[in-house]
Amino acid sequence: MDLSEAYLTLWSDLDGVFSMALVSLVGLIVVVVDAFRNDHPSLPWMGAAALLASIGWELSVLGDAPGTALFGAVRTGGFAAFVNLIILVSGLLTIVLSVPYLDQLKRAYGEVYALILFATAGMIMLGTANTLISVFVGLETMSICLYIMTGLVREDEGSIESALKYFLLGAFSTGFFLYGIALLYGATGTMVLPEMAAGLEASGSTLLFWGGVALLLIGFMFKVSAVPFHMWTPDVYQGAPTTLTGYMSTASKASAFASLILVLFYALPTERWSLVLAFIAVVTMVLGNVLALSQPNVKRMLAYSSVAHAGYVLVGLTAASPAGYAGALYYLLVYAVMNIGAFGVMAFLEWDGKEGREQTLDSLAGIGFRRPALGASMGFFMFSLTGLPPLAGFTGKWFVFAPAVNAGLTWLVFIAVLMSAVSAYYYLRVVYVFWMLSPEDVPEAAEAQNAAFPVPASSIAVIVACAVTLLVLFVLSGNVMGFAEGLFEEAASMASMP
Q1: Between 380 and 350, whose confidence is greater?
Q2: What is the largest CA-CA distance in the chain?
Q3: Rounded to two decimals, what is the model's pTM?
Q4: Which domain holds residue 427?
Q5: How many Å apart are CA 110 and CA 123, to the nearest integer?
Q6: I want to staple 487 with a disulfide (CB 3.0 to 4.6 A). Which of 78, 253, 276, 346 is the partner?
Q7: Measured distance CA(288)–CA(242) in Å, rounded
Q8: Three-state SS at 212
Q9: Residue 2: pLDDT above 60?
Q10: Taking the CB of residue 315, how many other CB atoms lie within 10 A of it?
């Protein structure tokens, strides 16, 4: 690769990496402004403006043909824009929800919003990476920011414990990831994803190659919370500030899965990894749903739910078809809306003074009548997470299950449907407690009944908008899915051209 003209081509590549560049630049500006005007109220809105401008840009390039930028380091075009939209919207909604929430916690630090911007930039690089180096740089940029945000409340032992577990296990998984990259480079002589298949054919180092793939998948499975690399998820989700938990459970998962899709689509022969992912999907769905059944804390229940949903996405990937990859993208979009909304509701129903880490679901008995907008919206999110129509969670599961059936993996889809039915118990229990359980019948509800739950209009607007979006995505599911599938069909046709 000739890099002698690298600096001269940066300006011509700027449109391909506009969102990542803008978000990073504004993140630096936020840091500088915060140094002179500590924790100024304008800082989050500077970040929100950058994310909003980036969303507009990605919408304008959504229909562009696939390509690369920065000497092939990242991908551009429709797929990249679709993934970037999921990440950017998640970041924007998180900032809007976090402003009043962190004010309540007395943790409205300007650095938080800079970290969100830097994490978003890392996620964009990870989700659009075209080389293993880009994957690693994006992954670590994202991860370091998330480690810090997890331990934001330094005086709380649960928050510090969560951050330490996340950091140690994340560093451990990074070692596997790096070793996998080294083996893949040794086997193929390249780190560019579309060139790896040809490199493997030329070298013939099959054993070295698949050893590298195995180690690389360990790193990816850790980031998407797949079993048996999910151990960090419940503790981290429970101990982190709730709005930031929603961000890390959606945007980071979307970027990691998008990067995994690119690796599977461009670099790996289909016949070797499909059944491996099917096995991981099964144990992830089963363990995630079974453990979620017994969780009295909603944040911890949603953490195990997140593990289960990683399994559902993997079901779509096992099909190894444009429809399966597109279904996974659609599911990630829907999942982002559902989970940011659900964690947003729980953020403004906290009364324990420990970011909801210790309060139980039963303590919120009858809370739907005190906060009907939150209660009704939570019903939308729980029904959608279950996979019930007419909400986008139903079409999301349909679009990841159907390609697997077409690929002959009916047994896998049968298990997935069975696990979705199991999940109905703990999701619908939230609705039951919110609306049908009397607080007088629950001893632990006394403290919650005396607590105030101030919910600003901006937060209500975001939460209700997420609930309405689930209806809109259900209605437009065919259009969105058709567009997403076209992205992979176009990329496949271009890759097959001589």
Answers
A1: 380
A2: 74
A3: 0.93
A4: 269-498
A5: 20
A6: 78
A7: 20
A8: helix
A9: no
A10: 30
